[in-house]
Every structure is written in structure tokens, then in C-alpha cells.
Amino acid sequence: MKKCFSFLLALTLMLAVCAAASAETITLKIAHNYDFVTIPNSVIAAADRLNERYAAEGKDIKIEFETDYQRIDWGEYGQNLIFAYKNGDCPDIFSVSDVPTMAAVGMLLDLSDLNQDAFVDGAFTSFTVDGVPYAMPFDLPVRVIYYNKQVLVNYGWTMEEAEALPAKVAAGEFTWEDFVQLCTDVKNAGACTWGLCHRPGSGNDFLDVMRTLGGRYYDENGTLVFNEEGVKRFFQFIYDAANTLEITPHDLSQQGWPAINKMAGDGTSFAYYGPIYSSTYVANAVEKDPQTFADDVAFMMFPVSQYNDKPFVIAGPQGMGICSSTKYPEICKDLFAELANNSYDLLADHANTIFTLSSVKAANELEAITTNPIVADTTYMADYAITEPSVDGLSTYTSLLHNNIVQLELGQITPEEATADMKVQLELNLDDIIFE
């Protein structure tokens, strides 16, 4: 009897070993572009946990990865992915850029099965086309106004007053008009060299000022809009900031990122508007660690104005999609579900690393975010965040917008001329746009 039992035990162990040895290894290709590799790395880390879960469930599957991380122009990156898809060599999982174009090509898997209740409201908006979510948001970077608390102290405020400014903005007690006046006052008092600076090139940051001034650039259907009065009002502000109030340098767009990051970080400029994750570059430009940087610089939302009745921030989530032709759609979706529902600490670590909020609600409550000196005081902004749809033609719109910004700041054209020129160029270059 003992010999029989021993034989059965040995046979059981041998079968277990054989089963383990026969586990199917699934190799997924994952692609990413430029910075923030913590995005794809969180997927890879989640796979280790999913492998354990599969083993516990008796599934003979082991997930491994082949990585393809690049640092090229985002437009080129997107075109390369489309080319790879058409040639049957698309990565299984990849960071997305132009979702409407990718969806139109048919290369993105429908992610309607993913539980969106775990995410911050609206996090999927920019990745949704015709009601179908095609990518998962991995974070919730918001665009904010940076301001230097030390400049305000030098101007005569107490540190307590300087630190209370974001709450006053959230309560609607400090308006855009108050902000512009403050930028002017601190500059004229000599507390800083410039009152307000911005990115040197084309980008969506400028649209936040336009929204504050009541200009809309898409409608309820996500169609691009040229709102003539709003554009003219925005151009008037840009012109005045450089030429009348003189709070912005005439040649700001020619100065480049290193100079502008330094201006925003050392108090040469009192304020700057852009993504909160840019604080990584701003802090590095002035050789400050996160805590020291947070001691000097704080963040506030875009305030109410005479044209806009609610403070806001615009969220620009970064996301990943799954190729529609992958051999392993269910496994890829399991990885996304693992991150959203169980391993969201990995998303919190990603958000902590790049100084931003997380797209997953539970992740924003974890210590990695609540103790981050840059992000900790901005978690309330998730309740005010607006996630915009993917708007066809917006990159052309922002490019033309910036072309006129450069000339306006140099004093070479008037706001009226800039508005008329942009309207003509949009009429020539875009078909799907509403003029109002």
C-alpha cells in the first residue's frame, strides 16, 4: 500500500512538473514613444501579477514582452504604427497618439468591456470615437497655472496668503482679470522680470486661455469650431500681454524650452501655464528637487472670468490601445483590467514619477500620490477636470494659432489681422470645421 501511495505521489508530482513545463509562453510586443516609459512598464509589471493569477486559476499561460521604445516625432510614430498594422506587424499594445485616425484605420480594439467605473469621470472621453472607447487612460495630467510664491512674498504678501491663492481660485473669489492684474503688478513692482510666460511652440496650452476668455473650439459633437469673437479676444490678450501690459517677452517663442523652463522655475517669470507634469523639466532646469521646487512654486486652476463662470483644468490623459489584429485580445484586455481593478498601485507609481494625477480613482488615494510634494495639493483638481474629445483638425488649428501668436507678440500684426488670417487659412486647409 505504501509503495502504491508513493508511486501515485511521484506520478502526481511528475504530471505537475510536466504541466508547468508545458505552460504556453505568450510574447506580446509593446510599443511606446518618447518620455514616461513608466506607462508601458506598468503593463509589464502587471503581467507578472497576472501570471500569478493565471497560475492560481490553473491557466497554463505565461506572459512575456518584447519592447519597442522610441523617441521620434509623435506624428511619425503614429504613421509608423499605421504602416505596421497594414503590413501585419502591429505591436499588440501601444501608446496612442491620434485616436480618431487610428480608429478610422481599424487598428484599435474596442475596449467597451473595460470597467470605466474605476476611472475618474470623463477619463475616456479623448479616447472615445462614435461612442466606442479605443484606449485606456493611464494618468490624468492636468494643465494648470504655475505661480511663484516667493515672488508674491517679495511683492509683500505673506506666505500664507500666497499659499491660499489656489483655494480662492477654486471658490471663484480670484478671477482671471485679478490674475492678469497681479501679473502686471508684481512685474511693475520689480518682484520679477516677467509676469507670465508660456510654451515656445504650438500646443494645446493656449486653448486653456481661449476657453477662459469664452472662446470655444469644438462643439457638442466634437467638431472643430472657429469662434471668431473668442479667437479675436484671445489674440487681443496675447497682443496686450506683450505690447501693452508688457508682462510677456516679445520674443518668447524664440527663446526655447531651456530658457522658458528656467524662467518658470526660478521666478524670473511670476507665472506660466502648461501641464503639471512639465514641473519635472522646470525643476530640473533650476536644479531643484521636488520638495524644494514645491516650496517655491504652486499650481492653481484657470479662474472664472467675465466670459467663463467656472474654474477648470483641462485633463490630457496619456493612454495605450490594443491592436485589433492581435492574436491575444483577451489576454491584452486582462492586462488592462488588472491595472484598473487590482494593480492600480502601479498606475499610482507612474503618476508619482511624472508628477500628475492618476486616471484611476483609487490610485489617487494611495500614498504615492498623497505624499508627492508636487501633486499632493492638486488632487482636488480631478473634480474640476474637463477631458476633451479627440477633435479632427485640432493640430492644424493650434499650429495656425501659434503662427499668429508669434507675430502678435512681436507687434507685427494686430488682433484683427490675426483673426482674419487664421480664418482664411482654416478655410483653405480644413473641410470639417464650423465657422461662427
Task: Please give a structural write-up.
This protein has 436 residues and is of the alpha/beta class. The protein has two domains: 24-138 and 321-376, Periplasmic binding protein-like II (D-Maltodextrin-Binding Protein, domain 2, 3-Layer(aba) Sandwich); 142-315 and 393-435, D-Maltodextrin-Binding Protein, domain 2, CATH 3.40.190. The protein contains 18 helices and 15 strands. The protein has helices at 2-21, 38-56, 74-86, 99-105, 149-155, 159-163, 165-170, 176-188, 205-212, 228-243, 252-266, 279-285, 290-296, 329-341, 344-354, 367-370, 394-409, 415-429; strands at residues 24-33, 61-70, 93-95, 128-129, 132-133, 136-137, 142-148, 194-197, 224-226, 269-275, 297-300, 313-315, 319-322, 385-387, 433-435. The strands form four sheets. Strands 7, 8, 10, 11, 12 and 14 form a six-stranded mixed sheet that branches. A five-stranded mixed sheet has the order 2-1-3-13-6, with helices on one face. It has a two-stranded antiparallel sheet with strand order 4-5. Helix 2 (38-56) links the parallel strand 1 and strand 2 (61-70). Helix 2 packs across helix 14 (329-341). The longest helix is centred in the N-terminal third of the chain and has 20 residues, at 2-21. The protein is globular, with a radius of gyration of 25 Å. The protein starts with a helix and ends with a strand.
